Structure prediction request, 245 residues.
Amino acid sequence: MLQKKNTILVIEDELPIRKVLAISLESVGYKMIECDNGKEGIRLSASVQPELILLDLGLPDIDGKEVIAGIRQWSQTPIIVCSVRNSDKEIIEALNAGADDYVTKPFNSEVLLARIHANLRKAATQETGEPELTNGYIRMDLVRHEVFLHDKKTLFTPKEYDLLRYLLVHRGKMLTHRQILKEVWGDAHTEDLQYLRVYISQLRDKVELDPAAPRYIVTEPGIGYRMETVTELPASIRELATVEA
Ligand code: CA
Prediction:
């Protein structure tokens, strides 16, 4: 079957970095479009309509955060920031402006490709509007409001359910404390970090095999949390699920 190539727009003023990106993106079959300044990046994002955007923050004309705000006025295309700026403040501002993820330079190509893949998949899933969300052995039936772990129905409180749903919908994406609190608890609770910690801990107790070493709900220190995309089940668990089904 012939598959449409995913087009990735790279907005980055350093030529050596664009060259490295071209090699790794093309090696896995992505088509790369590039430019070296923010204004052209905004124009290209409209004319090319890429599936995903890789964005540097330090650009010669306008700041990368302005590029995010510009694109977000009309497009929900996933944007991954790739920047040398590594302060929590910069990362949080970029995510709150509408970026989907943040990778600091120097970056590991494999990690970057994994993040790209996760964000492309999330975008594709959102388009299909599935009545079910799955990630590894977690499955949420959004119609019946039920959660299954290893195909076993498991009880969650309404708030735990809302939080798990939000994390699953945005799986693969780095989420700030503020974003999660705003979406799950509402505008009045954006500073209530303690709520979030308690509920994250409760969720981990339920969904993680080892809550002390979470594989699904990982902490992004100083920023927030990320629901990792878990693609493969250990064979033993897969067999167990098949037998019980
Ligand atoms: Ca730069």
Notes: The CA atoms of residues 29 and 171 lie 23 Å apart. The mean pLDDT is 89.
